[in-house]
Give the backbone structure.
Amino acid sequence: MKLDLNIKKPTTRNAKNTFAEIERGAIKLFYERGYHNTTVANITAEAGVAAGTFYLYFPSKIVLYQHILGVFSYNIRKYIAERVSEKNTRYEKEREGIRSFFEYMIENPEMYNIIWEALYIDYNLFRQYYQTFADRYVVGLEEAKKNDEIRDLDSEVIAYILMGITNFVGLKILFDLGNNNIDIEKIIDVIMEFLEKGLFKENAH
Amino acid sequence: MKLDLNIKKPTTRNAKNTFAEIERGAIKLFYERGYHNTTVANITAEAGVAAGTFYLYFPSKIVLYQHILGVFSYNIRKYIAERVSEKNTRYEKEREGIRSFFEYMIENPEMYNIIWEALYIDYNLFRQYYQTFADRYVVGLEEAKKNDEIRDLDSEVIAYILMGITNFVGLKILFDLGNNNIDIEKIIDVIMEFLEKGLFKENAH
DNA sequence: TCAATAAATGAACAATCATTCATCTTATGA
DNA sequence: TCATAAGATGAATGATTGTTCATTTATTGA
């Protein structure tokens, strides 16, 4: 499934550094200005190398983007999975999943913009990213159902519901990141109470 | 608050048609190819007018985008508000809000891409769009709290939770729109049961 | 009917930018 | 040490595209 992007890996130590600098510069600029407002010349200038150097490693600008998306996609899944696997109940796993998503997002605010931008750069990659994320989620939810931990609701719909909650509350957190008075734990508390008891009171209808 | 985009409104009937054709062509192409892969020449060709005609009405390509975003933003809010106001309980309002969001989205799949793309074209407009949407939501939620219909949770967080749910489940629906066996009512049932009782069973932790 | 105004045209312009390539520099390993 | 390969350079290229403008056509109101 891992598609070959035709990227040339550097061998010498200096070259590895050059490659990493191009990655770093691209992530910074794609985040700050978006893919289309970032030129290859911008990236190489940020990386401190000549324009032509870019094409030693990447056959095109779009391939660099696809590569970076792949790296982020892998890293966030790994980050979350490692922390969730430490917990035992679905409730604790869910809480930890949400917390680690927010953590990763705050440490790597570039990820957000870069992943969403796939919708306008490579639609299939965008769709695949979320569908893969959802598929993994479904596995955990089905297991929790077997253990009688969660209600018997369509797991795929629930997966998208939970991704929607974390992504949009995450968006709000990014909006407010300038303000120093955001309390992430308090926000997670609200989400968890919502997941526990729902929105409506018993007499609501 | 309504910002002046410096758009020239047409006066004669023919000119009104030209203006509408440019709007229509732009929406079609922004949806199909994205903003950056759509040229002004593409838009005028789609509209069946000469390239220069574009600048009779819009001072630049970006202003046309901002104009279209404003139209969608207004239309979807109006569409939902009209239907929600017919309902009495918060439960019924919520269900109708979700349903009408999906309805509008399926009828106007362009809206989704065009609004999200704001993140890469005009960040402030993007942020303003969601914050305005959330602010409206908060008003309704606060009222429902007073009526003891919903739990006492932070209304702004809940607003982003609910927007996240509708947007991401909506995304899933758009992914699957090719398949003819999607049952929207069933998906809404899942969301509503989730909102009623939460995700976890009583004995979950 | 006929000036005055509005609408429309499309070739030309100027700027941008992804990519190439001939040349030079550095590293490697036998 | 030295031949070979890998890494790096940056000016040049060619294609694209947002915008302008001199000119032509259509509409309007008196």
About this structure: The CA atoms of residues 7 and 59 of chain B lie 7 Å apart.
